[in-house]
Amino acid sequence: MRIRRLKLAGFKSFVDPAELVIEPGLTGIVGPNGCGKSNLLEAIRWVMGEASPKSLRGGGMDDVIFAGTAQRPARAFAEVALALERTHGDGATTEAEVVRRIERGAGSAYRLDGRDVRQKDVALLFADAATGAHSPALVSQGRIGAIIAARPAERRAMLEEAAGIAGLHVRRRDAEQKLRATEANLERLDQLLGEMD
Ligand code: ATP
């Protein structure tokens, strides 16, 4: 999977719609202090499903919405879109677009190629491609120190993500839940059959 474009509107300091084309290879963001470098990285993590406001340097999720300045009023919503190039097993590539939008006081919603999807679907899409909101490939300030100081369980999670198997844990939990529900249904069915005999 490759990120081709990042589009933002109303996200943190990016109040006006902005579009960045991300070329193949290593991408670095440079600029003066406070120009919004970290905000760009946070926008990528946010659209990938980041659920913790703290890891986006905010107190609540609404803090990602442009809060206004002396010159400009605050915005009511923020939207971030990622255009992705996905490579399939047979080597063929397709484009996909993931969008996350948040309205002040109303929470956020996700779309994948125009269809409404859940946060979980988006997180799985990235986990299967060996990336995601917590990927060590997105190197923000302080991240290298955090990786060095990580506990063994945290390192394991990073390795699992890099191997593209992080999504298997979620699927296993889902499968176990379905299995338990099916077992309960079978038990109930047995009871009913017993009552009919
Ligand atoms: P540095 O090089 O100092 O780390 P940076 O280029 O990474 O800075 P960011 O931390 O991305 O800069 O951006 C900080 C700017 O974003 C600040 O001016 C801050 O006021 C602004 N900002 C953050 N959240 C919002 C928001 N919700 N609304 C408006 N502006 C915001």
From TrEMBL:
<protein>
    <recommendedName>
        <fullName>Chromosome partition protein Smc</fullName>
    </recommendedName>
</protein>
<comment type="subunit">
    <text>Homodimer.</text>
</comment>
<comment type="similarity">
    <text>Belongs to the SMC family.</text>
</comment>
<feature type="coiled-coil region">
    <location>
        <begin position="165"/>
        <end position="197"/>
    </location>
</feature>
<comment type="function">
    <text>Required for chromosome condensation and partitioning.</text>
</comment>
<feature type="binding site">
    <location>
        <begin position="32"/>
        <end position="39"/>
    </location>
    <ligand>
        <name>ATP</name>
    </ligand>
</feature>
